[in-house]
Amino acid sequence: xxxxxxSSYLKSVAASVFxxxxxxxxxxxxxxxxxRVPAAPTAIPLHKIVMKLPKLFxxxxxxxxxxxxxxxxxxxxxxxxxxxxxxFYPYCAESKKAxxxxxxxxxxxxxINEFCITPVKPSVSFExxxxxxxxxxxxxxxxxxxxxxESIPLLDNNWVIHAIxxxxxxxxxxxxxxxKYPRDSLLQVHGWFHDRIHTWFKxxxxxxxxxxxxxxxxxxGAYLMALYTSKYSAHFKKLVMCSPAGVCKSTxxxxxxxxxxxxxxxxxxxxxxxxFCLVRNAATxxxxxTSGWSYRRFNKLLRSNSNTNxxxxxxxxxHRYAYAIFNQRGSGEYLLxxxxxxxxxxxxxxxxxxxxxxxxxxFRSNCEWAWIYGERDWxxxxxxxxxxxxxxxxxxxxxxxxxAPNSGHHLYFDNHEFFNKFIVKQMQDM
Length: 430
Description:
By secondary structure, this protein is of the alpha/beta class. The protein has one domain: Rossmann fold, CATH 3.40.50. It has helices at residues 3-15, 46-56, 61-73, 76-83, 146-151, 186-203, 220-231, 252-255, 263-270, 275-281, 286-297, 300-303, 309-326, 335-339, 381-393, 411-414, 416-429, and strands at 25-29, 32-36, 96-104, 111-119, 130-135, 159-164, 213-218, 238-242, 368-374, 399-404. The strands form two sheets. An eight-stranded mixed beta sheet has the order 3-4-6-5-7-8-9-10, sandwiched between helices. The chain is globular and about 60 Å long. 43% of the residues are buried. It comes from Zygosaccharomyces mellis. One of its GO terms (biological process) is phosphatidic acid biosynthetic process.
């Protein structure tokens, strides 16, 4: 999910204290395209804050209190009720079956949470199966891929789909994050994630025939997996970089005139003070605060032409799922301040580190690459294009760049129909 969430969420909350001017959008006004850019927050009277609260946080207090009580009683139900909106879980259907798995990945007993979809009647043995692995971004979880898991087929019944929660995210274990910025090094933090991801790959039997692995990683997850390839160069056949973070030092947001964040905002960023802290400390109002983001993020389900009972059910389940993962103990999310500086620029851009000439001993990846960005993405597609050209001409590997229309940073959800077709094409090319 990454820093677009952090920025928009903090601004939503800040609006209840300071108010804000318009974010950058383009509107047709008397035939002309008018661009509005962000401006500094301005104070607004308290009575106006109170009047705006229902619009800022649309979840009712009663519903928020119920969500909190449910969370305290059994938090796993939030993941269960979301995944149960899929036709093949918990009971097999459409020649598919699915299960939730927890794979231990360290000596402390911490585990990676996984939703695994397999064919009811596989056409080949497990060793010969092909594997599509979904990896989410900052602050997210495997449940955000709901519309992709719902529709992507298990081609010829010889594919398995794995959607995982990164270490310290979602419904994976939430151990105390052992690093603090800037005391510890970024390389130590990378190693903490990569060691556990590697253990998961090994324990799940995905390294026996690693040429059958296709990884799709979003945002900060894509950043982690790109670095993973420089350490383990032959663990998968292809890596799909979905709106990746950390590629280069320019983001679309900065290119359109964002002002430099104030010093206190930067300080909070480096201390990993995030909107999730608000949710965790709000007790019974945490779900209501979450709705300031989730109701806008998943509103497409309610705006669809069909607007079926299933759409409404999934909208509600996605909100509750988002609340549940935001409200859990902070852990893997603390990668953010190590990987990115305030505003979204990477501290060590991939373009300047791992994507270098092989003779320098840096570029070691053997996999194929695909890059996909939303048409209105805030990540800089030009960075992806530059790296893609490098991969082709200097790295000697296949790479392509695709733009998903009518979508932003969360293109896998915004235009899941286009995105799913793109992923199926990558599967067919395997």
